[in-house]
Amino acid sequence: MRRWLALIPLVGLVLLSVLFVGFSLKRNPQVQPEAMVGRAVPDLSLPLLETGQPVAIRQAVTGPFLVNFYASWCAPCEIEAPALMRLKAQGVTLVGVAYKDAPENSRAFLGRVGDPFAVRVLDRDGRAGLEFGVTGVPESYLVDAGGTIVAKFTGELTPDEEQRIIAAATGR
Fold first, then answer.
1. Which of 43, 68, 122, 166 is most open to solvent, judged by the fewest CB atoms within 10 Å of its CB?
2. Does the model's pTM come out above 0.70?
3. Long-range contacts for 127-131 (Cβ within 8 Å, ≥24 apart)?
4. How far is 127 from 103, CA to CA, in rounded Å?
5. How far apart are the first and last CA of the chain?
6. Is 31-170 a domain of CATH 1.10.565.10?
7. Whole-angstrom Cα distance, residue 40 to residue 42?
8. DSSP state for residue 162 in the 8-state scheme
9. Where are the domains of the chain?
C-alpha cells in the first residue's frame, strides 16, 4: 500500500505534463500571424513619444520603412536593439511603437539601448497592436513605399531577416 502512495505525486506530475503539452500543441484558429501581410498599414494616429502630438503612421515617413513594436519591459527587445541599430546604419527607416509602455520608461529604454527610430510613437492601450495583429513584442512589419505591409517578423530579428529588410527597404 505504501508503494502505491509513493507513486501518487509522480502520477499527478505526469497528468499535469500531458495536460500542459496538450494545450500548448493546440493552435488558436483566431490568431493569424501573417494576416496583415499584403494589406495597407492601418490608418492610425498615435501620440509622438517626444511631444504627445498625434501623428498618422502612414504619413510619418516616406518610402519603405519598418514598424517595430517594442517595450521597455521586454527582454527580447533589449536583445534585438543592436539589430535595429544596424538596420538604421544601413539606411533603413524605422518607426518605433512603444507597446503598452509608459513614455518615461520608453525614453529611458531608448537612452539605454540606443534609439534607431526616425519616428517614435506610443501605443499605451495596445489598440495599434490589435490593428496590426501584434502577438507579442518585439514584432516588426516591413512596409513598402506604397504603404502595404510586405512582411511580418515575430520575435528578435535574425541576421537573415536583417538582410531581407535591408534589401527591401534600400534596394541593396
1. 43
2. yes
3. 127/44, 128/42, 128/44, 128/46, 128/57, 128/97, 128/99, 129/69, 129/97, 129/99, 129/100, 131/42, 131/44
4. 16
5. 73
6. no
7. 6
8. H
9. 31-170
Q: Does the pLDDT of residue 142 top 90, yes or no? A: yes
Condensed to tens digits (0 to 9), the pLDDT of residues 57-101 reads: 988 898 999 999 999 999 999 999 999 999 999 999 999 999 999
Q: How confident is the model at residue 33 (pLDDT cuts 50, 70, 90)?
A: low
Identify any residues that bridge with 40 across adjacent strands, giving them in sequence order: 148
Report phi then psi at 75, rounded to 5: -60, -45
Query: How far is residue 6's CA from residue 91's CA, in Å, rounded to a whole number?
Result: 64
CB contact at 8 A, 83 and 66: no
Residue 82 has which C-alpha cell? 543592436
